[in-house]
Amino acid sequence: MLLRGCRRRLALPRAPRPGHRRAGSEVGAAAAPRYEVVVIGGGHAGTEAAAAAARGGARTLLLTHKISTIGEMSCNPSFGGIGKGHLMREVDALDGLCGRVCDRSGVHYKVLNRCKGPAVWGLRAQIDRGLYRANMQPEDQLLCYLTHTTLKAQEIICDNLHLNNHVRETTRGPRYCPSLESKVLRFPNRQHQVWLEPEGLESNVIYPQGVSMTLPPELQEQVIRSIPGLEKAKILQPGYGVQYDFLDPRQLTPSLESRLVQRLFFAGQINGTTGYEEAAAQGVIAGINACLRVHGKPPFIVSRTEGYIGVLIDDLTTLGTSEPYRMFTSRVEFRMSLRPDNADARLTHRGFEEAGCVSQQRYEQAVKMRAALEGGIATLKSLQFSISKWSQLVPEVPISSSRRLPLSAFDVLRYPEANMELLARAVPEPLGKLAQWRQLAERLKIEAAYEWCVENQQQEIEEVRRDEALRLPEDLDYFAIDASLSSEVREKLDSNRPQTIGALSRIPGITPAAIINLLRFVKTNHQKAEGLKALPQTGKYLPGKMYSEKAASQRQISAKFSEEKQEYLC
């Protein structure tokens, strides 16, 4: 059993507002002789599944207990974020619904993780709940505001922990979306961020992001009013915790079909996940494969090397989960290749040709962008000048003078200070046209920045693919081996004891670099290690002795850390 925390909604004093427009809905169109795909549940997984199956040509019926809550945002009014934004772009690349509806109902857009590279940017949209249902397009963005909790809030929580089921129960709660009570216990005497996010253009309802609670309502009100800026706030809906049972996702195939009951597919929270985006990603794959199953076609599988969706489903179906599963960029081995900007290049063509879920218009857009991107890269690479010439053309870019060979415009574009607009001003012909298409110009910049990373990563992907079945020695001492592995990775390897390189790559938190380093160690060094074990023990210094002493020490530290860590988990 898992527990998901949901939060409250606040009403701040404001003048009366006009009534909301309501969304109209219809269930099941004209009567058909029989339905080929029946989707049960109108949440984010169900809506994506039903739409995907229908796009694929299956006669589809969606059954839900209440028409007005189809696609309801039951928790926070936002989509996307770090890792989650990648899932949304991939659902969108398969012509899914959630991205399109967010475009028409967003009130605030932001890119998280912008201090890092585009490969791990988290695209996020704050959504107007009413507009999301009504499928309308706002014109303006609303501001979000930041405040913090106080020690008074901590005092109220600590004095009333005996009234909090979330903290006292053994149910596993969401580690990465913790309640305020859990944060106060794990990180006492701190101020915790609270983002005040408007719920709509015509609404005075504010969603306080970061203060999930399950205390009694009267105590929640005390906590809220102790936060600067919320002294006069009124709680419209108190926070609450949801306990729910889930099916072990390891009984599912990578197409999300049950291994126990043929033609039965599962997607969403029932598989142990948390979040709109995770549900939508599973829904679109389940809907596609239900349609393909009906038509007798092979399943549509997204691998770990093709998308975040593939990582999500592979984690669930091979490892299962003991807590609400949430997507993060750190779960993805080859994130340099699986970027938000190239989701269409990775999935739209497959979605059109193999799954039949992508419209002709969307497919043609992807084909046009691919051709423009390939042509743009070729043009940039063909335009070559000496370093001194480039320094004259773009003095803003600090090009290294140590390079002797001529540089192409694509090489110059790799520098952080360079962009297509700058290059087009320096060389109007032929670069002017490339800079005019803003989306293309952004894609070219990202492709230039990541080209060498992607090439190296593609070689690593092929290396891992070739040796995925390579068995790891059962007696491998991960704390002792002379490989470039962090202490955290060694601890995970020692506790999981993967049997193959493929199993190793599916352990959450194991980095691509760790996989490659261990693969190369096993292939090249294990025979030498076996030779050292065969040497006679003379009592003199041997390298293996140093490693074993070091390993014992690391195990003690690891065990102590694990015990301390458990004390703080609620």
Shape: globular
Approximately how much beta-strand content do the residues carry?
5-15%
- Count of runs of 4 or more consecutive helical residues: 21
Helix content: 40-55%
Q: Tell me about the largest β-sheet.
A: 5 strands, antiparallel
Computed CA radius of gyration, to the nearest angstrom: 27 Å
Structural class: alpha+beta
Gap between N and C termini, in Å? Answer: 15 Å
Number of strands: 14
Strand order of the largest sheet: 8-9-10-2-11
Mean pLDDT: 83
Low-confidence stretches: 14-30, 538-551, 557-570
Give structural notes.
The longest helix is centred in the C-terminal third of the chain and has 29 residues, at 438-466. A 5-stranded antiparallel β-sheet has the order 8-9-10-2-11, with no helix packed on it. Strands 5-7-6 form a 3-stranded antiparallel β-sheet. Helix 2 (84-93) runs parallel beside helix 9 (276-294), helix 5 packs antiparallel against helix 8 and helix 12 (360-382) crosses helix 17 (438-466). The model is unreliable at 14-30, 538-551 and 557-570 (pLDDT under 50). It contains 21 helices and 14 strands. The chain is globular and about 70 Å long. It has 570 residues and is of the alpha+beta class.
Architecture blueprint of SSEs:
Blueprint lengths: L1 E5 L2 E3 L25 E4 L3 H12 L4 E4 L14 E3 L3 H10 L4 H8 E7 L9 E6 L1 H6 L10 E4 L2 H9 L5 H4 L11 H7 L6 E6 L6 E5 L7 H9 L8 E4 L2 E5 L31 H19 L13 H12 L23 H13 L4 H23 L1 E2 L1 H7 L13 E2 H5 L6 H7 L1 H9 L1 H29 L20 H10 L4 H5 L6 H22 L9 H26 L2
Parallel strand pairs: 3-4
Antiparallel strand pairs: 1-12, 2-10, 2-11, 5-7, 6-7, 8-9, 9-10, 13-14
